[in-house]
Design a protein that fits this description.
This protein folds into two domains: 132 residues, Butyryl-CoA Dehydrogenase, subunit A, domain 2, CATH 2.40.110.10; 147 residues, Up-down Bundle (Butyryl-CoA Dehydrogenase, subunit A, domain 3). It is 49% helix and 20% strand. The protein is built from seven helices and ten strands. The chain has a four-stranded mixed beta sheet. The relative contact order is 0.12.
Length: 289
């Protein structure tokens, strides 16, 4: 959240002063930023109700943000807000700003998420990134970078789960034979292998598309959604099958299978789940396709 999401937005939307103050510090880990975007139970960048009301001293921000990745302990937040116009705006809000409340939001993967409540938080004119209402295109680019990174993370977890499951099938003995000799488990394993390879291709295509200047913005967005969609769908299936093939120990804290499952379930839903990106991919298809 600090480097890929917030760093991208600072690079694309911030001015020289904002970049000098935050970019190098974020990369080194000296300071941490968090993107505050989602306001509902499901990811939807267009569904922003948090208001930025202009006044003589800058802007007054009021509203709520949920599922803020790395939100607890962040030094500042990039808050997405809606003003009087139709577009979205980005504001740098310090963690100690009066009127800002940060609450930990526990999720099953035990990672750092937060809920933000902003009650007439006053920020100066210099807190605005770019022009008012102009943050939409930069936000899409940053989110797609984060989505492809999440897709890569899920691909790596799925590959590890698959390797662990194969090792278990080769060593677990039942009915005096290794369970890997059962044809039904062989078929299920072969299907998982195919799904992993297909998802790998989608993730590689998504990564390559991010900085391919030959592609249009819609094409890059489509490749990012394809990567997140396929990797999330595949990783969740691999995790579920790994639990089933391991049996009861697959959900114990002593075995990493259950830990991977919990992380995959959160990563799959973060920045848009498979359903969201399947629909987005279809919407971005050319009319003649």
């Amino acid at each position: 959240s600090s480097v890929v999401l917030s760093g991208s937005l600072l690079h694309l939307q911030g001015n020289a002063g904002q970049q000098d103050r935050w970019l190098s510090a974020s990369i080194s880990g000296e300071r941490r930023l968090a993107l505050a975007l989602d306001e509902g139970s499901r990811h939807n960048p267009a569904n922003v109700a948090l208001q930025a009301v202009p006044n003589a001293n800058g802007y007054s921000l009021s509203g709520n943000k949920y599922f803020v990745i790395d939100g607890v302990g962040a030094d500042a937040y990039l808050v997405v807000a809606k003003g009087a116009g139709a577009g979205l705006s980005l504001f740098l809000v310090a963690a100690d700003a009066p009127g800002l409340s940060v609450q930990a939001l526990p999720l099953i993967d035990s990672r750092n998420h937060a809920r933000l409540q902003l009650d007439q938080v006053q920020v100066g004119h210099d807190a605005l990134l770019g022009e008012p209402g102009s943050a939409g295109p930069a936000l899409e680019i940053a989110l797609d970078r984060g989505r492809v990174c999440l897709a890569g993370e899920m691909l790596g977890m799925a590959e590890k789960l698959f390797a662990m499951t194969l090792d278990y099938l080769k060593t677990r003995v039942q009915f005096d034979v290794k369970i890997g000799s059962f044809q039904s488990l062989q078929h299920r394993s072969a299907e998982l292998y195919v799904q992993i390879q297909l998802a790998r291709s989608a993730v590689m295509a998504g990564l390559a598309a991010l900085d391919d200047s030959r592609l249009s913005a819609a094409e890059r967005q489509r490749f990012a959604s394809l990567a997140k969609w396929k990797a999330g769908q595949m990783a969740l299936n691999v995790a579920n099958e790994a639990v089933q093939m391991h049996g009861g120990i697959g959900v114990t804290d002593e075995l990493d299978v259950g830990l991977f499952l919990k992380r995959i379930r959160v990563a799959q839903a973060s920045l848009g789940d498979a359903d969201y990106h399947c629909e987005r991919y279809a919407d971005l298809m050319p009319a003649h396709a």
